[in-house]
Design a protein that fits this description.
alpha+beta, Rossmann fold, OB fold (Dihydrolipoamide Acetyltransferase, E2P), 2 domains, six-stranded mixed beta sheet, five-stranded antiparallel beta sheet, 8 helices, Transp-assoc_OB_typ2, ATP binding, Iron(III) transport system ATP-binding protein, ATP-binding
Length: about 375
């Protein structure tokens, strides 16, 4: 295994900055995910780790070894590409054995290693079959086996599940995690799928426009977003533009504009980061599942009367759109099986719990 250090790395293609002043530390044996929309710099970063691109500036290290200008074949990394990059004219066995033959491994040892990895990916009975005769999920496993059989220090996965249907993606998530734990290998996974990132990762780096906006555990990324881009990209969110009012030891009071009027909200005074010059460009974030719908008014902070505009039923979850003043709030309620008056046009009271709200800077996704 190997740790990875990305030290102030920049990658430019002509005048286009694909990755800008990136600093990351990835631990031995960690499942680390690069998450972001298309063109955000995540695959470019992966390719700099693999050695397919060299950084314009900065240093890439494996452990304490400088790998910045080391060619790919000397990095001992295994890579699974989005399109698998298998050899269609070869059998499953030959595809998996290819990297070992390049390394001129002896026939006996080669056979042992290939059979062992095919057993681990549950494809031993398909060893003599052409890869063109396999399903998408089976081809994915062949690509994983080919990457793992060379016993790499680092496994790199570039959107490996994007070509599979939803059910097969779920199955392959579990399969990849099982293999990663079996091999105890440092793994970097690139995806634009938030569900994949949240369910599989030890830690996540969220990218946009070549900038890494936040690094953290899935819980930290979801519950404590660093700015409006992270909050909006990871799951559903209510983002309300606010201005800071009075600040007390326990609460920060913010003003939210409701059409022609405004409402005051009390937010639990937890630490939050923003530049002083950005003080007038802030948002309040709260997840839809954190908002409570009340049957009647009760005493307490942050309780407002509203009207249900829309109800969508998803089985275990009910998605409700509530209008309160000039604000539209998305609320997700668990279906408890109890009869409640959750119909369009119904009047309700909504509560925004003070400990569930966060004040975050608005960066418009550009990292400024």
């Amino acid at each position: 295994m190997a740790s990875i250090n990305i030290d102030n790395v920049q990658k430019a293609f002509g005048k286009v900055i694909a990755v800008d002043h990136l600093n990351l530390d990835i631990k031995d044996g960690e499942f680390f995910t690069f998450l972001g929309p298309s063109g955000c710099g995540k695959t470019t970063t992966l390719r700099m780790i693999a050695g397919f691109y060299y950084p314009t500036k900065g240093v890439v290290r494996f452990g304490k070894k400088d790998m910045t200008r080391v060619p790919p074949e000397k990095r001992n990394t295994g890579m699974v590409f989005q399109n698998y990059a298998l050899f269609p004219h070869m059998t499953v066995f030959e595809n998996v054995a290819f990297g070992l033959r390049v390394r001129k491994l002896g026939s006996k040892e080669l056979n042992i290693k290939v059979k062992d990895v095919l057993q681990k990916v549950r494809l031993e009975q398909y060893a003599d079959r052409q890869v063109s005769q396999l399903s998408g999920g089976q081809q994915q496993r062949v690509a994983l086996a080919r990457a793992l059989v060379i016993e790499p220090e680092i496994l790199l996965l570039d959107e490996p599940l994007s070509n599979l249907d939803a059910k097969l993606r779920d199955e392959m998530r579990s399969e990849i995690l099982r293999l990663q734990k079996d091999y105890k290998i440092t793994t970097i996974y690139v995806t634009h799928d938030q569900a994949e990132a949240l369910s599989m990762s030890d830690r996540i780096a969220v990218f946009n426009f070549g900038v890494c906006h936040q690094v953290g555990t899935p819980s930290e990324i979801y519950n404590e977003p660093a700015n409006d881009f992270v909050a909006g990209f990871i799951g559903e969110i209510n983002l309300l533009p606010v201005k800071i009012g009075k600040v007390e030891q326990e609460y920060i009071y913010v003003m939210v504009q409701n059409g022609e009027s405004s409402s005051e909200l009390a937010v639990r005074n937890a630490p939050f980061n923003y530049k002083e010059e950005n003080k007038g460009n802030l948002a309040l974030s709260i997840r839809p599942e954190a908002i409570n719908i009340l049957d009647e008014e009760r005493e307490g902070k942050n309780i407002f009367k509203g009207t249900i505009e829309e109800v969508q039923f998803f089985g275990s979850l009910i998605n409700i759109l509530v209008r309160t003043g000039g604000l539209q709030l998305q609320v997700n309620a668990l279906n408890s099986g109890l009869s409640r008056n959750l119909e369009a046009g119904s009047e309700v009271w909504v509560e925004l719990p003070d400990e569930q709200m966060r004040i975050i800077p608005v960066v418009n996704g550009d990292g400024s």
